[in-house]
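Technical note accompanying the year-one report. For the benefit of new consortium partners, we illustrate the data format agreed upon in the data management plan: each record pairs a sequence with a structure-token string. No post-processing was applied to the example shown here.
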Amino acid sequence: MKPSLRGADLLARSLVAAGTRHLFALSGNHVMPVFDAALDTGLELIHVRHEAAAVHMADAWGRLTGEPGIALVTGGPGHANAVGALYTALASESPLVLISGHAPLGELGKGAFQEMAQAAMAAPVTKASWTAQSAETLAADVVKAWREAKSGTPGPVHLSIPNDVLDAAVDTRIPTPAQFAVPKEKAEEVDTLGAAQRPLVIAGPAMMRKGTRELEETTGIPVIGMESPRGANDPSLGRLGGILARADLVLLLGKRVDFTLKFGQAFAQGARVVQARSVRGIQFKNNEWLDEVRAALRYRPPEWRAVQSKAEGPIHPVTLCRAVQPLLDKPGAVLVSDGGEFGQWAQACLSAPRRLINGPAGSIGSALPFAAAAKLAHPDSPVVAMLGDGTLGFHLSEIDTAVRHGLGYVAVIGNDATWNAEYQIQLRAYGSERAKGCELLPTRYGAVARALGAHGEDVERPGELQAALQRAVASGKPACVNVMIERLAAPKY
């Protein structure tokens, strides 16, 4: 009997067997067979406007659910557009699979349309990267990619699939859900504290998502999650630097002694530093040290409570965040924060049950794709994205994606009409007379959002903030509240 499945059908059905419900995709010649195959499987295509946005959405999905997000893009320039976003996912230890179309195997080396060494291009920013070689082995490739993305330290995986592999007739069994299961790793337990009086556990991004607060309650040891490129100067962690310098034992849980820890210089001389996969079995009883650490992490300058913006504007970031916080005081709320100076104010001032930030890579521009994926993962929870006007420009068109798919997040734009992080570098390094080239226009992005079919607000004065935010939430649409803010450096303590 003639095989009834194409490679594309096998791919789609294998992804469904793994538990995939959504493909974050951008169409193109090489992947149209997958678009066709998805129709028969119930896979929902979340069709984005730029390939990097598809990867960012898969990244956010992976961080929020623990299951690999799947990004699907075409080959050649489509693949190249997607690769840059993989670095953000790699640094944040986020499980995802990027599936890229590819020139046909039978035409390689002959000048095929959009022929490119795609696997080699993606290799430096993934855990694994390869090109499928046949339709018969495609199911095994999908299982391998899924398991690799989830196993050990999670991270992105890339699989290129040539056109002729997708179109080829195949007679291969669909993998079972059990084949995608990842065996639990045997954890190495640290079961002694020695004579430590001030121990700390520092968790990397993946370990943070497993629950740092629960670990702290179980062991009695202060647990600090680090996922910011600001490292020891992360404004969301208060006076972290002083705590790191006082610890006499540091247990690194899925965390390297990298630039965020000043390559070890953040610790006191003579402090014991131990790499660990688990700290179960430890009981530490020193409530004074635990209370000291918690107080240091909660610290915010008392003068922030007295900040008042001028009635005519522009608005201080603290004033803006104060108005936004009630939107996040809801069960399951998700705070998305981009990088840059405004992102640091948001991370310092806002809290929510769930948080997604740009991560150790220090990239910017992912907030809108992150917010869309967060709303998809948690449709009944408020999702608020905080981003600057510079970062907004990377994926402004993804407002259109959110409108088409009914993903009603609220994006709050801190608009100071500049690339402010770089402007602050210029001020510090070269002086105000040479702080040139980072200016932007004070664009009315609320009006832009309305033109894209979203709800849009443009706010210039603090008295307009509360009503604008309330209208954004009440709209039920993707919403953009564009707020003119003071041009300030990121907070420092």
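Partners are asked to follow this layout when depositing records. The chain has a mean pLDDT of 95.
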